[in-house]
Amino acid sequence: MSDYVKYSSMSEGDDFLDPVPSFEVTKECVDKYIKATNDGTKELTVDDEQGRRVAPPMLAAVYVIDALRTRVGPPGGIHAKQQFKFHRPAYIGETLFTTAQVLKLYERKGRNYVEMTTETRNQHGELISSGMITRIWGKEG
Amino acid sequence: MSELKSYQHYNVGDHLDEITQVVEQTMIDAYADASGDVNPLHIDPEFAKTTFFGRTIAHGLLTLAFVSRVLSAWNWQGWAYGGELNVSFLGPVYPGDSVRVSGEIDEIVERDDGVYARCQLACFCGERVVVKGFVICKISH
Known about the structure:
The complex is a heterodimer of chains A (141) and B (141). By secondary structure, chain A is of the alpha+beta class. Helix content of chain A is 14%, strand content 34%.
């Protein structure tokens, strides 16, 4: 049995993530992301009026990919397209839950493509981000 | 919905402040650690040699983190609270590449809930376009 998701095992309309994984937005993971991406945005360094610290919008790349990592494709797959809508930034201390659905499966130039929609909400059900990812599936051994 | 040529200090044809970021393998490794995306295509030179690319490449979402830096500096409120990003990854970013992120407002429209600007975005490694797309952000707050 392979340790990755086989392209042939997916169907359009499938819920990709079952059960829905959770992701804690910790200060440590936000600081690590900001440092790794060399992001000096000043709004990320101060608390808002309610004493909350926002995470960079593109932290979505971390929590969505973290969610998808629970069902990975074979090594060597890459991103072809990405859409994100940031309804609001996540705050440090929130727990995020990402759902994903297989929207479309197709082949082009001998490569397998997977389009997935994602939606991330916090522990209160508030919508944080939604998106669509198109991945070129890695070659299966 | 009506099209505008300008709104407050935003004008069609305005260029966003560009950034240039050199991407070394150490940055890719740090991003892999921060994001949890440890696809060997990004961090394992021996594995990467066996792929189409022949060497490691940066995560596409690392390049989007640079886009986010540009958009945060341009219009933090509109980007982080409601920003809609839509991009395609057109080519790899290799270790040692210098990524230049550019953007230009090509449309300003008034909708029922406010005024929005669309910016065409592109990331370049030298003359190569590696990411192309657009973002829509609210500019009336």
